[in-house]
Every structure is written in C-alpha cells, then in structure tokens.
Amino acid sequence: MTSAIFSSSLLGSFPVVTSTRHCDLGKERNKFCCFNEKKEQRNVICACMAPPTRNLGRDEFHGTKFTESSKYGNFSKEAKHENDSDVLIECRNVYKSFGEKHILRGVSFKEKKLGFYFSCNGDGDIRHGEAVGIIGPSGTGKSTILKIIAGLLAPDKQPGSTGSQSKPVQGHSPDRYPGQFPEQSVRLAGPVRYENSCMSDEQIAQLVTETLAAVGLKGVEERLPSELSGGMKKRVALARSIICDISKESIEPEVLLYDEPTAGLDPIASTVVEDLIRSVHTKGEDALGKQEKIASYVVVTHQHSTIRRAVDRLLFLHEGKVVWQGMTEEFTTSTNPIVRQIIVFGTGPDHLVGPVGLGPGRRIGLE
Ligand SMILES: Nc1ncnc2c1ncn2[C@@H]1O[C@H](COP(=O)(O)OP(=O)(O)OP(=O)(O)O)[C@@H](O)[C@H]1O
C-alpha cells in the first residue's frame, strides 16, 4: 500500500494583485513531498488560485500526513494498481470538521501523474494531463478539500475529530495572510515573489513580462489592481500560478489548483480564463509557444462553461463524500438522483442544465 506524505512549504511572499475573489498564488504555492511505497521521495509542486482562506486559525499548517485516517478506509480495490510511483496526490478517507460541523466525511481519491482514480474503482484512470473538476452543492466541502490538498488546512486526525495535525506556524499567521496590495503594480509582484531568488532584477522583470504575455496581458506591468478588470485580475492570478523561478528548477508546479477561477466573470471573460487554464497544461503550449510542464490540475467550480471547456473528469462531492465520478460528458446523463438534481436545478448562477437519461457514470458511496 502506498503511503503518501505531504509536506508543504510556502515559497516566499507574493503580493496580491487584487481580484473580486482574492487570489494569492504566491502564498498558496506549495511544495509537496510524496513518498511512494519504496519511500523514494519525489517532489510535487502545487500552485493554487483560490479565494481568501477563511479563519485558518490553528488549522493552518506546514505539513501533514494524509494517511493518518487511512485505517478507516478500504482501499482493497486499489491493489490492481501495481505501480503507484506516479501518484501525485492521494487523499485517503479524509475527514474535516469545523467545530460541530462535519464537512468532509471520508473523501478518497488519488491523483496520478498518469491518471486519476478513485479508491473504490481503480479502473478510473485518466490519461496523462487530464484535468479534474470538483463540483457539488454549496457548502459541501469542495474548497475545503482543495485547501487540504494545497496544504492550507490539515485534515482531522480521525473521523469526527475537531483536532488537526497542525504544526506550529512560523511566519504565516492568519493575520499575515495577505490581503490586497492596492498600491502595488503588477510588476512589483515579481521582485517580492523572488526575494530569495538568484535571478537578477532584469531577469525577474523579463520573466514577469513574458508570463503576463503568456496569459494574454501584454503591457499591464505598471498597472495597479484598481486599473484591471475582473477578467484581467484572474489572468494575473493565473500568471502568478504558472510563473516560476528559472534559477530553481524544482519550483515548477506539476499540479495547479483552482478554486472557482471564473466566479464573477461574464461569459466571454470566463471563456478566456478557461482556455488559459487549458493552455498552461502539459498537453498544450502557452501563448508564447512554450511547452508547459504542469501535469494536471484540479478545478472547483459551479460554472457549466468551466466544466465544459476546462475539465475532463468530474468528482461530485455531496455531504462530505465523493458520490459520483465520471467523465464530463457522462455527467449530464447520470442517473444518480443527487447528480440529476444538480443537473436540473444547478448549483450556481451558471448552473448545469442538460439532458437527463441513462448513462455510464460511476456511482460511489450512495445508492
Ligand atoms: N475555516 C473554517 N472555519 C469554520 N467553518 C468553515 C471554515 N472553512 C469552511 N467552513 C465551513 O465549511 C463548509 C464547507 O465550506 P467550503 O468552502 O469547503 O464549501 P464549498 O463546497 O466550497 O462551498 P461553495 O460552493 O459555496 O464555495 C461551509 O459550511 C463553511 O462555512
């Protein structure tokens, strides 16, 4: 049985170029160390594009073992996967409560470099570089699981426990968790982000310019956040998540985590962001024609267009568990009553409406 140990380290501060949903990619860029069953260490870099973290408090942490509650899980069907050395992220029966609110009640999945599959149906592999979406009703824990993956929250030690595996936080207390920096230009993000870099100021400036160009934002370096539209702010945030210190090969992100990256955008701006999310992926090239290295990404979204354009496989979270998973095109034909309810009534402003009928979507957990 593979055990994955995740540790995160925040890679320096990176000022926020504000967003309607505040995005602080620098802070939320985490380095994960995974160990496969031979205890060989491999590094997985995650960067996330997320709204503000609420009340991290004592749950904020720098490292955790996701295997702590694995004794409550049953991974017997994983046995058919003989080689887990390419697992990027593994969640085993993850629980999370906030006080008396039991939010996550046994979420399990693995993300593999060569695929993504569930603990309870090991045949759900995804091709290399496929994108995974997490959907579900409001308050069901989508952002929470994303934060746990990102290393911003610790899972509970055991089901129903309100404790966490937090370690003391040094230098990243919640009150220092960055707000917005309205007085700082887009370009200023670079030098602060690279305060520990060996790169020269010129190299950093060039990298910022190139990365902005890669997300279709030429010439905005000197603009203040107040001078950017909502869609531009999202694209700046995306640039932050993909920019990397060329003097440090190891911080290239392999996994990108997006929490509602198109929330609040009009349909056209959403499309631009969705296509950019696709374009920074391993399968494609960025706007400058460079081959990207990001192996996979996870998107939490309510928006139909994001699912349609930027997601290959869906995880449906309901009441703290994954209740359905399948390819995006299977979603609208699922017969799962909970899924059908979402298809018909939606979960957000741009809700999913599609044909309902018989389909091959896999059901997990609920009958
Ligand atoms: N740090 C926290 N402290 C207390 N409660 C929290 C915290 N973070 C999340 N919650 C609660 O956990 C529940 C799940 O929140 P989460 O943001 O994960 O839901 P979600 O599925 O992403 O919702 P939405 O789709 O509306 O964004 C909510 O009831 C929320 O209020």
UniProtKB/TrEMBL annotation:
Gene3D superfamilies: P-loop containing nucleotide triphosphate hydrolases (3.40.50.300). It comes from the Eukaryota. The keyword Lipoprotein does not apply. InterPro entries: AAA+_ATPase, ABC_transporter-like_ATP-bd, ABC_transporter-like_CS, P-loop_NTPase. Residues 159-168 have a biased composition (Polar residues). Keywords: ATP-binding, Nucleotide-binding, Transport. Residues 89-344 form the ABC transporter domain. SUPFAM superfamilies: P-loop containing nucleoside triphosphate hydrolases. The keyword Ubl conjugation does not apply. Residues 156-182 are annotated as: Disordered. This is Protein TRIGALACTOSYLDIACYLGLYCEROL 3, chloroplastic-like. It comes from Gossypium australe.
